[in-house]
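At your convenience, could you comment on the folded chain following this short note?
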Amino acid sequence: MKLEIRTPDKSVFSGEVTLVQMPGIDGLFEILDHHAPLVAALQKGRIKIEDTAKQQQFFDINGGVAEVLDGNVLVLAE
């Protein structure tokens, strides 16, 4: 699935991933390929991604919103 993480200043990440873990306001949740459509509020925390080579990356955020739709994940982060 394609993931984009954007802040008001720039695009932080754009690429193909197999897993995204995000800090939702009710706790951590994960998105995998073929996930149902979703809009979620995010709290301060860390986004974990795993790319197609099984390598992990982490991004700290101060909150934001995530949208999952048709194999695309868009994170608008602070």
About this structure: The radius of gyration is 11 Å. The domain at 2-77 is CATH 2.60.15.10 (ATP Synthase; domain 1).
